[in-house]
Amino acid sequence: MQKNPEKKDFRIAKFEIGGLVHLRHGRPTINPNPGGHTHSNIEINFVRQGWVRYFIAGGFSVISARQWGLFWAAFPHRIVASSPDPLMIWVLIPLTTLVQWDLGPAFVNRLLGGTLVLSGSEQDPPAARDMETAERWVDELQPGSALSERAVERELEAMLCRLADRHRRGAVPAAPPAGTEATRTEQIARYVEAHYRASIRVSDIAARVGLHPKYVMQLFRKRCGLSIHQYILQLRVAHAQRLLVTTNRNVLDIALEVGFGSASQFYEAFRRFSGCTPRAFRFGCRHPAGG
After folding, report:
1. Each residue of 105-150: pLDDT tens digit?
2. Cα atoms found within 13 Å of the Cα of residue 71, Cβ hemisphere only
3. Most buried one in 151, 175, 227, 257, CB count within 10 A?
4. Do 112 and 246 touch, CB atoms closer than 8 A?
């Protein structure tokens, strides 16, 4: 049963592990002039009714009614289309919290690599139970209740552990393609995603998609809200964040690995998109406040 469609927006108090989870319920909006939206959390979208189409890390994906999916929001993302009456529940989990949950390296690396990880369909019993749990949070959870907040924390962790295990066993049905063929914008984005570590020329992209270089730049900015150069920088920083969290490699090695030509270029871009230095980012993920 679908209940209480009005918007509920509040911040859950600090968990014992030191993270904050943000839960919001309502109808998504589509900005006619969107930019490349990013933040450092893991974002979970539960679609209660309707459907939404996302652009995430170079690809387009659909989350259908009664389905849920999660992705690392350090990659540029936005909702590009939806049904007339979508209703969603958003949950944001700090990266520091995810790192401390034992979800397995394969699942975490897949998630931090820019993949939208989907649950099963409405007919899939585990996905249906998860949706009912999320709807119960909206209907029952009250801000400031330590017991209910702790219950949500544990249910979220258990939900993701089950999903990670089902993906490991191949028990989640493959997601349907978002369209019959990739749009030219998606072709451009996917080329950048595959080659962001190299020195990419617009002429190379144009040759790949069969368009004039000037039109490639105009089209990408119009449809994605940012320049190709900005998108490349965001991808490089996002992948650097992943390596900082999942490996012990030194900062310079990571900078070179993701495509920066010097440490100074890397630090400038990292500060711009992350708000801190690479070392501070790594330390904060491994030693969260209160953890």
Report:
1. 888 888 888 888 888 776 778 888 999 999 888 877 766 666 677 7
2. 26
3. 175
4. yes
Kindly tell me the burial class for residue 71, based on how many C-beta atoms sit within 10 Å of its own C-beta (0-12, 13-18, 19 or more).
buried
- Find the helix or strand (DSSP H, E) in which 9 lies: strand 8-11
- Please give the DSSP secondary-structure letter assigned to residue 211: S
Beta strands 87-93; 77-82: pairing state: unpaired
pTM here is: 0.73
What's the CATH number for 8-168?
2.60.120.280
Domain ranges of the chain: 8-168, 181-225, 231-291
As given in the structure block, the two tokens for residue 238 are 């996002």
Of 49, 89, 90, nearest to 73 by C-alpha is 90
Q: Alpha helix (H) ranges present in the chain?
A: 95-100, 105-112, 125-140, 146-168, 184-195, 202-209, 213-224, 228-246, 251-257, 263-274, 278-286
